[in-house]
Amino acid sequence: MTEPALSAADALAELLAGNRRFVEGQRAHPNQDAHRRTQVANGQKPFALIFGCSDSRVAAEIIFDRGLGDLFVVRTAGHIVDNGVLGSIEFGVDVLDIPLIVVLGHDGCGAIRATMQAHETGVMPGGYVRHIVELVTLSTLSAARAGRVTVDEVVAEHTQQTAQLLADRSVAIANRIATGRCAIVAMEYTLAEGAARLLTTIGDAGTDTGHPAA
Ligand SMILES: [Zn+2]
User: Fold this and answer.
1) Who contacts 78 (Cβ-Cβ below 8 Å, separation ≥6)?
2) Most buried among 13, 65, 70, 195, using CB within 10 Å?
3) If you measure from the C-alpha of residue 50 to the centroid of ligand 1, how many angstroms do you get, rounded to a whole number?
4) What is the pTM of this model?
5) Is it the case that residue 199 has pLDDT exceeding 70?
């Protein structure tokens, strides 16, 4: 691939433009044809990494109107972070040199609802679903402390906490942010409107809310 690397700000602008097309029903379906398939068969140079919820209604390439080779996507229910997630994201930024990580929460998230329900009833879900609830719990606690108690308020809190967790836990990601080679943005997607709005930024993504990583 010979395409020049984008900055985090350029990558974010591309995503926001694609999301605007999606919201307005004007999708261009870029990079989804046989030519593109052949073009990227021997290498990938995605311009953004999307770490979002597994929810079937939040499909990254569709809501940002992108195609093959554009987005490196990692998804877990409630975008919970474990070692496999961190390894996948570190591969994306370190090996593929991706300049922008998007943590993508969404309104009405079932993982958040399940966690809040477990708090209210004291009944833990079975199997490994309990693991998801355990990992979302710190966000629900910090949201409650700040007086944020609705599902969507907790979604916003959890999405921002997830972004901060990536920067705090991964040395590779933190180094990339500190040297200006990568930024993280937390975004919340609304199921009915299809719009992804910016919640917060870690590093420089050309946004007003940007601040350097601690
Ligand atoms: Zn969800």
Assistant:
1) 53, 109, 110, 111, 112, 115, 132, 135, 136, 158
2) 70
3) 14
4) 0.94
5) yes
